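Thread: "does anyone have the structure for this chain?"

Original post by V.I.:
We have the sequence but no experimental structure in hand. Need at least a predicted one for the grant figures.
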Amino acid sequence: MAHYNFDTEVNAKKHFITAMEVKYGKEWGSNKQADDIQATTAKYLRLGTAQNPRKMEMAKIGAEITKKRGLQAYDPLLHLAGIPLGQRQLTPYTLGGTDIVCDGDDLHYVNNAAMQQEWDDIRRTCVVGLDLAHETLEKRLGKEVTPESINYYLEVLNHAMPGAAIVQEHMVETHPAMVDDCYVKVFTGDDALKDELDPQFVIDVDKMFRPDHAAQIKASMGKASFQAVHIPTVVSRTADGGQTSRWMAMQVGMSFISAYHMCAGEAAVADLAFTAKHAGLIEMSEMLPARRARGPNEPGGLSFGHMCDIVQTSRKFRDDPCKIALETCAAAMMLYDQIWLGGYMSGGVGFTMYATAAYTNNTVDDNLYADTEHGWDTFGTSIGNCKEPTIDIIRDIGTWGALYGLELYENYPTALEDHFGGSQRATVISTATGAACAITTGNSNAGLSAWYLSMYLHKEAHGRLGFFGYDLQDQCGATNVFSYQSDEGLLAEMRGANYPNYAMNVGHQGGYTTVCTGGYTGRGDGFAINPLVKTCFADDLMNFDFVEVRECFGKGALREYDRCAGERAFVIPAK
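Reply from O.Q.:
Generated one for you, tokens below.
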């Protein structure tokens, strides 16, 4: 495989320096000693919220709400008993890999429609096998299953899945305008069957993936056939992720009854229901233990491997493993850190700040490209030509990446203006180091080892990483990278947000996902762990663009994201 041209990404003027110029003024960037922060001539007045247009807008709206309802609302002067938000400069953010600049507030998922839609599109999705249902129809009922009958079934199903009547004599139905994002397609490794199906219903693996990736995916799924089901966003928002499979199974069952002229009460219907709800079902995430109180298709049960496969960047940027890793990092940081830990687990706001460091201002970008170039040049590797992981490789890349990242912060201390604590700095450096090791070796667990080595060296250099709980989990992590204990012996791709030592680790889970991404992209594979999940999301009808994640976040921050679903405007009186 050809080497990726790193010179286009790593050059004399690092990309994150450009982001610093945008944030702190052109005086620094245009100065002859631009790389020396002491050469800055700009004077910053700590004007509190007055320095930031978005904060001023929020204060204005807060005052209007207070007046309207006669009850106190947002007031920035309540901060620290009257101290305005002026103790630090409120700087903008550049979305990594783009030229989009936005305010930090607009990267909170509550304020960003694209971030909400990313999670909506995951939570409302499941994959359901067709073969078991077809065997039931043929062996239990003597029905003939043909490409024509499958096409008719899919026509019926795409009417029924959004909530339309199919055997209930046109009783209560959902309005199409409320559920226009809901649909079902099929995919298969059987080319003969694919060619017989109506193209509107098919995710064509050969068209959506590169030839080598398509061949790998089709070989993995064999002749089996599957349904990619996306229930209405408004349904999963109103209920939860556990509703996804229940909603799907009801409409699938009704559609089989109608399309194959079955009796609704016959025993074979129970077999079809069991197939849809259990035997043939693949959900995006597992149900969590009762102490977490989360059902299936909720973020805590989403494995890192599934998250890698949901992101689709590898379909279009096969020869740039760093780009693939960085887009996956953004998707995972937002979901795991901002929504799962920041929302479901903590309930607070500050977690957003931990996540943004990993996908803004090109800081991880520059580290990752440099670390990967070092790994490839040192060990003579490239995409599809990895070195078997050894202690020497892990030690080399883990050490080099840690020192490179620490020197970057020392040479350009302004970068830490975004990273308000050592915990963010530690995540940024270890994410890049671990992913680079995984890309070089094609092994995610080797990447995790490099991650923890980077953390150890970081603590040796600075005496600490972040807060105590953060330090604790990074110091014990290396002991279970290759553990064989029952709940610790999983490959990195099979671990998830609720894995012991990860369950409350701020800013890490998106980093671990990035490491897993490095593993499969370094090998040149078409998927990380599940070809069915990879194929399910290889669909241009998806609302969220899982290829260009950071660009979507930027559009959401600028209020330009226009592929939102689940909105209620159609049934709300015009204002």
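V.I.: this helps a lot. Confidence is low (pLDDT under 50) at residues 27-38.
O.Q.: and The radius of gyration is 25 Å.
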